[in-house]
Amino acid sequence: MDFLTDYTAVKFAGFEKAIDVYATLVEFNIPFIGTHISIKFYGVIIAIGFLLAVIFGGRMAYKWKLDLNKMLDVLLFGTIAGIIGARLYYVAFEWDYYSQHLAEIPQIWNGGIAIYGGILGGAIAAYFTCKHNGLNFMKLLDIASMSLLIGQGIGRWGNFTNQEAFGINTTMPWGMSSAKISNYISDNQEKFLAGGISVDADLPVHPTFLYESLWCLIGFVIIYFISKKFYKFSGQLILSYGIIYGLERAIVEGLRTDSLYIGTTSIRVSQVLSLIIVLLCVALMIAKSIELKKHPMVYDPVEILPPEDDYVIPVKEEKKNKTIAKKKLAKDKMNERIRKREK
């Protein structure tokens, strides 16, 4: 069993000392079977991001008194559909390659997924699951907006361990360089030229994974603050997500070297889609704000369930209610005894 293998020395332009970055956490062989297992930091980081996103989403659902059992159904089907959607989206825009290598389409472990495809696939599955289970789909999307930003903000560090998802050359002090980056740039010069970009393998590049990570985590703080202070209607938070993440992706995507393009053009798919999402979300936000200004309504995200179905009451609150009921009963009995004595 070998720990911390497949490392590369990563150097930032503004710092003298290089950092050893490991791509593999542990690798080992299973005796008698001969199967080699390699656990990558990329997968571990993605799993941590996913777990924290689920925990946060579950906590918000608990606070808003959404049925947690039904939420688990959404999580299960949404996750599966999200993975499939992320892969199909990537394959669709790399069809020239995959049409000649059909057997590689399911091999997601070799890389090749797209966040927009994952969001679309997950949202479609969530919609039908919510419709079947009687959950508020827009409220679910509002929770997902914050969970997604947690997962994306943390998950992007998996790209750092793999030394991927970087950008074009930069002279900024945080410009990043490593042997893996140089090799990738040297091996893909033809692809870069086809996309209309020029990258020098001997110069530092933009750490675009870092830009997206920071933007997503700051975006999470902003949307969470909105949910606490300025939450006016169901769907407001997912529209905020579309604006915040769409702006980030439209800007940062222009710096990346691994973009998906529309056909044989140099037009980046994610940039176009991001701009469309931002404009659509802004338009919907404005329209809803005008509607609320004309017809003001008080909004509360907490679900009000019938007493027989409201089994999501916090344990402390339930104990408190029982204590109050006991005290009231004792007081009523005392008053009854006093009345009897007076008679």
Describe this structure in words.
Helix content is 60%, strand content 9%. It has 343 residues and is of the alpha+beta class. The protein has a four-stranded antiparallel β-sheet. Strand 1 and strand 2 (19-30) form a beta hairpin. Helix 1 runs antiparallel to helix 5, helix 5 runs parallel beside helix 10 and helix 10 (236-252) runs antiparallel to helix 11. The radius of gyration is 26 Å and the shape is globular. It starts with a strand and ends with a helix.
SSE diagram, text form:
Layout: E1 2-12, E2 19-30, E3 35-40, H1 41-63, H2 68-93, H3 95-98, H4 115-133, H5 137-155, H6 157-162, E4 176-177, H7 179-187, H8 189-194, H9 208-229, H10 236-252, H11 269-294, H12 315-342
Antiparallel strand pairs: 1-2, 1-4, 2-3
| Residue-averaged pLDDT | 87
**Radius of gyration (Å):** 26 Å
Q: Please state how the strands of the largest beta sheet are arranged side by side.
A: 3-2-1-4
Beta fraction = 5-15%
SSE succession: EEEHHHHHHEHHHHHH
Shape: globular
Number of helical segments with 4 or more residues? 12
Unreliable segments (pLDDT under 50, ≥5 consecutive)? Answer: 307-315
- Main sheet summary: 4 strands, antiparallel
Helix content: 55-70%
